[in-house]
Amino acid sequence: MARHRPAQTEALDVQAAYAAHGPELYRFALRQLGDGGAAQDVVQEVFLRAWRAADSYDPELSGLRTWLFAIARNVVVDEARRFAVRPWQRDLTDGSDVTGPADTGVTDRLVDAWVVEEALRRIGEDHRVAIVQTHLRGRPHGEVAAELGIPVGTLRSRVFYGLKALRLAMEEMGVEP
User: Fold this and answer.
1) Deepest of 34, 108, 124, 148, by most Cβ within 10 A of its Cβ?
2) What pTM did the predictor assign?
3) What is the mean pLDDT of residues 99-116?
């Protein structure tokens, strides 16, 4: 039985997405892997996966850039694992296109922040507030509960179920939490 792609996927123009985000994705992969050839492979794989999964992309749920960077993060991890298993492949590069490792941590945190922000938009407001206040801002449960006018147990329940919802949202985005 043939599967019909939803109309929303027609809005995903891979060529336009490549023109808009390809260079950024390349720089991200290059900083992570330190290898221009591997970075090019990552960008190609990102757009191949995006094209194949176009029916799962919903512009109402996440921005195209966030979705592509989530895919890129997964591909970079796969590529890094491949290098770990076959270290001789990394030795084949001359190292001339390697950037400093100082940017790597900053880039990881930036992409992670984008992904978490997008996932937080997908969960209910009560859960989002509970997670942001307790986990991201590090505020005590008692203080947050008092501010919201709810019992501490209710806040703890919102945090627990909010984290479950957040994990599910990230899985729907194609990101490993």
Assistant:
1) 34
2) 0.48
3) 59
